[in-house]
C-alpha cells in the first residue's frame, strides 16, 4: 500500500467518518449518480464501518472536471485511489454501472494480493451478458432513459437548468457502460451477492443469475420488489442485507 494522497479526498467521500472502523465499504454509484446517493448507507453503518462513497469526475463539486467516458480508465483511476487507503477488510457495493466497476475493481485488487471480502452487485446484469444499447445518441434519448428508470427525483427532471448541467456526466457514463465488454470467462475469486429488482427493465432474473459464472467464490441472489432503483424503494431491506454481512 502506498501513502494516501491529499487528492484522494476528491474521490473518497466519508459522510460519517469512523475513528476506529473494523471494515470498509466502498460504494460505487450508477450512471449519472453521485456519492451522496449513499449517504443513508453511511449513516446506518457508522461508526463500525468506514463507508467510502466514490465521487466520479464531472458532477456536483467535480463538475469542472471532464467526465470519464471510458470504463477502463475510470476503474484504473479508482483502483489507484483504493490502493492508497489504509488496510481494512474491504467490501465493494456497486449499483447498475457501479456493479460493473466493482467487478473490475475486484479483478485488479485480487491481482494486487488484496482481494475484497465480497462484491455486492446491484441492479445490473452479469458482465458477460450484452444488450445492444445506444442511450447516448441524443439528449432527448438520454433523458427518456432516465425518466424510464425513475432514478432521478421528478423535481430534478423538470428543472431544465439542473438537467442541462447533469447531461455531460450522464452521456459520458452511458457511453462508458454501453461500450463495456467482458468475456464470459472473466472470473474473480471474490464472493458475489447479487441484488436485483423483480421488475427491473435493465436486468432479467436470468441475467442476474448469470453473475454466478463470473466467480469461483460463490454467488447468492437476493430478489426485491421494485424496478431498477429498488435499492431506494426497498432501502430498509437492502440495509438489512449489508448489516448481516458486516455482523459476520
UniProtKB/TrEMBL annotation:
Belongs to the thioesterase family. It comes from Streptomyces chrestomyceticus. Coiled coil: none annotated. Pfam families: Thioesterase. SUPFAM superfamilies: alpha/beta-Hydrolases (SSF53474). SMART domains: PKS_TE. This is Alpha/beta fold hydrolase. GO terms for molecular function: hydrolase activity. Keywords: Hydrolase. Residues 26-246 form the Thioesterase TesA-like domain. InterPro entries: AB_hydrolase_fold, TEII, TesA-like, Thioesterase.
